[in-house]
Amino acid sequence: MFLAAYLKLYVDCLSRAAAGIAKNAWTLVLPMGLFAAVALLAVPLSALGPLSGMFLRLAMYFAFSSYLYFAAGIVANQKVGLDDLKKSFLAYFWSIMGLLFVVWIAEIVLGAVFGQNPNKGVILLGLDLLAFVVLNAAPEIIYTKGTRGGMDTISRSVKFVQENWIEWFVPMLLVGAAAYGVWSNLWRLPGAVTLVLALVGGAIFHLVMVFRGHLFEALDSSTHRQRMFKYGRRDA
Question: Residue 236: inside a domain, yes or no?
Fold first, then answer.
């Protein structure tokens, strides 16, 4: 009953994600479009020398803010359009900057603490993996909770993961593995075109991200008992 109830929850979230994207089909090319825009900026930015890396990262943050803006609209069951593109770049930019600033400071401190340790590389890799786990829900925290400060985003993400780590990561692993399997096998098709494969990869990424948004809202707004009552009923 437990597995069946949660399977219904995951299918429901995936169905809503697909329906929302179908209503905004143009967003299937959004991830690749934003990535391509940032990649094109890399050429002129390279002329800035030592500053080029910093400006390229800022461009990536603007692009990610734009993506989260449209993903949030789809999760909210809205019709989104390119007329919102201009304001999307700043919608979550400062939230992303706040989070990454805290992460950057932490990396500097940890690098200094373990600077002379012969196992520094292994330790920092382990800490990076830990950060990936506890901050996994940070994108959804940013656009559903509207967090601005980095510490607020981190604390909310840690709390969410602590309370829902099984319900969150099991489908993430399954959906992620399935998506990777589909995308990677496309490369084996005869006459595969890199651009087409990249667009397909972006579309798969988009579906997974919108699915995450629906799953986050479902888990964050309910308890285990409420989910079992809703999805565990025989007539559900």
Answer: no
Q: What is the pLDDT of residues 103-151, one digit of tens each?
A: 999 989 988 888 788 888 888 899 999 999 999 999 999 999 999 899 9
**Which H helix or E strand runs over 228?**
helix 224-231
pLDDT tens digits, one per residue of 49-84: 888 888 999 999 999 999 999 999 999 999 999 999
Tokens of 223: 């308890």
Task: Please indicate, yes or no, if residue 205 is contained in any of the structural domains.
Answer: yes
7-30 tens-digit pLDDT: 999 999 999 999 999 999 999 999
Amino acid at 77: N
Long-range Cβ contact pairs of 68-72 (< 8 A, separation 24 or more): 68/92, 68/96, 68/139, 68/142, 68/143, 69/143, 70/24, 70/27, 70/30, 71/143, 71/206, 71/209, 71/210, 71/213, 72/143, 72/144, 72/213
Judge whether 31 and 205 are in contact, CB under 8 Å. yes
Q: 220, 71, 48: which is closest to 57 by C-alpha? A: 48
- Provide the residue range defining the domain that includes 80: 2-231
- Pairwise CA distance, residues 203 & 28, whole Å: 5
Number of domains in the chain: 1
Per the domain annotation, does 59 fall within a domain? yes
Which residue carries 């994207």 as its tokens?
Answer: 21
Rounded Cα–Cα distance for residues 158 and 180 (Å)? 26
Q: What is the pTM of this model?
A: 0.90
